[in-house]
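Lab meeting notes turned into a lecture example. A postdoc, R.K., suggested we walk through two folding results consecutively so the class can see how the record format repeats. The first protein's sequence and structure tokens come next.
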Amino acid sequence: MEPPSARSRPDQRDGGLPLDALYEILLRLPAKELCRLRAVCRPWRSLLSDPQFIAAHATHHPGPLIVLGYHTVRYHPDHRNEGIICDIMDLSGCVLKRVRAAVGNEWVMSIQADHVCTARMISTGKGYCESYRLLNPANGLVCALPEGLAEEHVEHEFGSQTSIAFGQVASTGEYKVLRLHDTESNQHSMQLCEVFSLDGSSNARWRGKKPPPQIVMLDRWKSVVIDGIVYILSYLPDCVATFDLETEEWRQNL
């Protein structure tokens, strides 16, 4: 956007600095600093209050975006889904982009960094299990995660619940996915733990890992990933299980 027209400018120069140059300098400062600078003098206050400057500054300093996920088969009488899996909105609630589901029955499992994890139910011949995709809403790229269990867990079957979390390894920036399953072994309930690396390799697969020290909650929205560490609510009172995506090991409970 061009600087304000000469008609809207309070002065052509300010302290020996051409207004065009001042405009470009102030345009690059964060909004918090501009609030303080409005008190410098009347010309600066007039410039910083100019609607054209405010619009140009907003363009140069886009605020955080919100990703709102949906379940494509759930129905609300006032809102038809029409296959929308998620909306990308600004803080004012304006929808900037809509992402449609690849299939009818799909829902958002979790959102982390610049990816959205979705799930859908598929038939395995022995029952049903969830199939997952990672979507990058910014560029439209889709990564379908492998179906089936890790080689280390082939003797097991999918249980009634599955939980998935993903994030970036803090030291390398590599994306990894943690998947947990309910299952049974010798009539005892247990949870399988598997990790998948999004490294672009054609032979990437789920890798079986040690189960969590205690049974954790596999419901949606029971986990969060911060700086490469997965935090999952445990069924133990006041206990949170932690998994390190870099070492691919469980850490001490919180």
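The second example is placed directly after the first for contrast:
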Amino acid sequence: MAEAANLEILEWPKKDNRRLLHVVYRVGDLDRTIKFYTECFGMKLLRKRDIPEEKYSNAFLGFGPEETNFVVELTYNYGVTSYDIGTGFGHFAIATPDVYKLAEDIRAKGGTITREPGPVKGGSTVIAFVKDPDGYIFELIQRENTPEPLCQVMLRVGDLERSIKFYEKALGMRVVKKVDRPEYKYSIAMLGYAEEEKTTVLELTYNYGVTEYTKGNAYAQVAISTDDVYKSAEVVDLVTKELGGKITRPPGPIPGINTKITSFLDPDGWKTVLVDNEDFLRELHKPE
């Protein structure tokens, strides 16, 4: 009986209305990062808020509105000017029709190109890498017009098959691409809710023989929408018992805001927050 009930619970993510909403990370100078992202990457500043009683500020930036697009949520903690990115966080990615031109524009505006534009090793896709003022790496990927230019969050994991199983079962994601490169001693899996060219994906990277990474204190989490945080938390609870990880915030409303969320760590310690769809839209549209 309990097993049948559990199987029913585990079906929920496949029926749920989910998408990647935003990625949260910390920066040492909010205005400097906003300037870099808007001038060099062409992002738009979507909203900004200051919470002096909690001593932090946020800014949300992206290539389209938060109702439809994946965005970055930058956090500035008063007086903290630098963070440790750690060895586990990899990069974000931006899709653009012309990597060579974007890289040159970024260089002309004082940005640092850490890998010159050119075809990926063993392939034909043109890529480049750029470092932002806080040391976060952005991959530039050549791709014709896409509805979602902010297209990847890359994280390193210690057991790729375990991570794939976790994100499939706990979050209802599917593997949209998987590549093993024994000559370079790594494997990757792209997971998301639609095809890679149409959406934002999580890129999980496994480097042969490396099972642990440092998390640092810079990168925070991704947020994903759900129609029911309570049902979603039940699923996560079951999956963490099987594969590892833990719920860090039981489902319920955030005091003062009333948006319902739940949060958890995956087996590698990467954090995800699930946010109620209706509450999220209400929060976006309420007057400041």
